[in-house]
Amino acid sequence: MRLATRANGTPDGELIVVSGDATSCLSAADIAPNLLAALERWEALVPMLQARAELIQAGQGDPLDPATLRAPLPRSWQWLDGSAFATHGELMQIAFGLDPIDRERPLMYQGLSDRFLGPSDDVPVPDSALGIDFEGEFGVIVDAVPMGTSVADAAQHIRLIVQINDWSLRAIAPIEMKTGFGWVQAKPACSVAPFAVTPDELGGDWRDGRVCCDLLVEWNGARFGLVNGDQMAFSFPELVAHAARTRDLVAGTIIGSGTVSNREYAERGSACISERRAIEIIAEGNPRTAFMAFGDRVRIEGRASDGSTPFGTIDQRVVQA
Amino acid sequence: MRLATRANGTPDGELIVVSGDATSCLSAADIAPNLLAALERWEALVPMLQARAELIQAGQGDPLDPATLRAPLPRSWQWLDGSAFATHGELMQIAFGLDPIDRERPLMYQGLSDRFLGPSDDVPVPDSALGIDFEGEFGVIVDAVPMGTSVADAAQHIRLIVQINDWSLRAIAPIEMKTGFGWVQAKPACSVAPFAVTPDELGGDWRDGRVCCDLLVEWNGARFGLVNGDQMAFSFPELVAHAARTRDLVAGTIIGSGTVSNREYAERGSACISERRAIEIIAEGNPRTAFMAFGDRVRIEGRASDGSTPFGTIDQRVVQA
């Protein structure tokens, strides 16, 4: 099942169910006013949402206007982002002389969740000298997860899968990282692709708790990376259980994979500029690739093994705030 | 003006206005359903809230039942905690061999904001071996703050002042800090004292953007610290402007001071166990004071220079989750 959020003048938008080919939809506002509310009563509501999806499949949907789509969750109470791709971590560690990574524990920080930009929203940044960078990644949305939930049980709480651009300001990131406190200024609002899909929608591409889809990243129309989500050192259920060790996770919590990255980066490229710069530093001593300028566009699209694009596309422009 | 939130079966509770002596109150649910909603329209609503406060002062309030009080914001979209007391930072740095602190930039992390425990709620922790610690601090609540707001303008967005217990799990904190990603497992839900007060309510104790009140901390009935909020290296307006450099701050954002700490710690004590242990390590080579055990209580109370207790009292017990 594919869900999305349509602009309706409210902070949380209107929940809609979308057809597999993303051409038709039906409102689900009578089932739950918005996706955040639906996640709070997921098990009770999901049969009704599925019935709505069947109506659409039977040809009773309305045309979908992509211009009305916001982030699936325009805001949520909690956003926890991992950094689960070992290749990315290793490249950054070598290039920037960071401390060795503890491979026994997932990396995770809490970020801004009071707003998520929509798939084609402009991205406001105050200063182009801040090292503007995209980060293509996948994420999961859970319903309420009790403190101390095991990895096996955590998998059952993963209700939806999304595709995210975790915007980063690289001139600030290492300064904040050095404090040990994590990122505030270096991490403005993320963007999210329009469709949140249930795990079954991905078929065999949801495998071992990983989103084994390709992620195509294009910067100003040129291919930057075509990476795959299968090489996470920790699975999404492991990330969820990690997050829930000492806290109950509120329904609607989004947990991110961190920048998708592959061992075959020489052929596949990267999902963020900083990783490409790290590769350049390691190979040549200095980075050649500059960060984004105002007016630059980035396009990020997940691709399933059958060639479909389950999450839709992020395609947006950086602008001066 | 003093505001509080009364339990009414909803996630956000009922907004009430409270008398200066905390004995009487009136509902403000007809003005705004809850405090988070009030902060979204603060300037428009504050005259109505003040009129309600005048009714109470004229003797028309209802009796206040302290047992019904929750955290002023039982949940909020954003919680950003600083660490603005230089003495605390220096003691921790020396005792634990941390990197030198950059004195030009405030320290800040984003923490769990989907729930704040009430002033007398039990505090659930999964394991007493995690180094259970309180952190007494002050915080401010802002209305919507645009990205790039100056320090001078930031001061105008500080609408309410609160008193917080930022619970910390010290066995995990240094492990997470070393990653540079900040704290997730080490920072479960905070607790907040019952009353949020407008800055004018503190008179001369709200000075230079600092809460110049004492903070009395008692652990199992014994005085642990009697510290004052006046020695912040960065003022609250500076913390707000720092947070807003690359993001719009959503109305209801709470920004914390970090553990209150004074240069005169030998006489005044500390507002968290970890700081006392740091002092012991520096003086004697090893810490003598153990962290909290299940069943332990902590009582934290801010005291104005006139002896009043503007925020009310946090008095709670740690329990096994």
TrEMBL record, chains A, B:
Organism field: Novosphingobium aerophilum
Residues of the Fumarylacetoacetase-like C-terminal domain: 81-319
Alphabetical list of Gene3D superfamilies matching this protein: Fumarylacetoacetase-like, C-terminal domain
Molecular-function GO term, any one: hydrolase activity
Protein's name according to its UniProt entry: Fumarylacetoacetate hydrolase family protein
Domain Fumarylacetoacetase N-terminal: 1-75
Keyword tags: Hydrolase
Pfam families: FAA_hydro_N_2, FAA_hydrolase
